Amino acid sequence: MTVAVAACQVSPVLGDPQANRCIVAAAVGDAANAGAKVVVLPELVSSGYVFSGRAEAARSAEPVDGPTIQLWCSLARTHHLVLVGGFCELGRDDALYNSAVIVDHTGLRAVYRKTHMWDRERLIFTPGDAPPPVVDTEIGRISTMICYDLEFPEWVRIPALAGAQLLAAPVNWPTYPRRDDQRPLEVVRAQADASVNRMAVVACDRTGVERKVGWVGGSVVIDADGWVLAGGNATAEAQTVTAEVDLDLALDKRVGGLSDIHSDRRPELYERVTR
């Protein structure tokens, strides 16, 4: 099945969930009007990212049945699409999680809590301890993880082995000194994730300087061969990156002749990887 996938690279407002709900509603509406059936939003788009500390993050946190996810479910129902986005989750006992949800026209399908904490995130959020979910939707099997999670090949392999056809990743890729003549390394790593797993990947980055932190702005849609279909170039501009993705390619793990990226694995030799 070929499906239009969109990554809405927006600029959330730090500490203002209501404003961010309006930003998301407008972006999702525009993507849907352009034909998108899968829409991906940035990491922590409900709240912004560069918190001064845990107390500030807590003021923007919401439970999974709060107004932000209720809105996203409504948007998915209204536009009949799959929506994946990152939000600041208030869990039990006031725990905070950097989370993502998968919702579709039927409602909330899955919640994922970021497992690998980047830098100061570990001072604010509790890491998740559950594997990336794989959800059967009308248009195919979709999984999600968040930003830094993509840099752990063992973690990305889990949804691939579980049959995911599309990995939708909300990200916030901060800028750092880089070569202007090269594609951002964050995008290159996402291409590798797609290629070595024969699984389409869409990563939705953000824009808008936040407390002097800028962002790569490298939202990208990648096919199961690892090729960039749309986006993938650094920009400071808000934009929606859209491409038609053939999800059926992810059902075929053959990579040439008698080789198969899954059946050729020899996990009995990989024990050191998990130590």
Automatic annotation (TrEMBL):
<dbReference type="GO" id="GO:0050126">
    <property type="term" value="F:N-carbamoylputrescine amidase activity"/>
</dbReference>
<dbReference type="InterPro" id="IPR003010">
    <property type="entry name" value="C-N_Hydrolase"/>
</dbReference>
<dbReference type="GO" id="GO:0033388">
    <property type="term" value="P:putrescine biosynthetic process from arginine"/>
</dbReference>
<dbReference type="InterPro" id="IPR036526">
    <property type="entry name" value="C-N_Hydrolase_sf"/>
</dbReference>
<protein>
    <submittedName>
        <fullName>Carbon-nitrogen hydrolase</fullName>
    </submittedName>
</protein>
<dbReference type="Pfam" id="PF00795">
    <property type="entry name" value="CN_hydrolase"/>
</dbReference>
<feature type="domain" description="CN hydrolase">
    <location>
        <begin position="3"/>
        <end position="247"/>
    </location>
</feature>
<keyword id="KW-0378">Hydrolase</keyword>
<dbReference type="InterPro" id="IPR050345">
    <property type="entry name" value="Aliph_Amidase/BUP"/>
</dbReference>
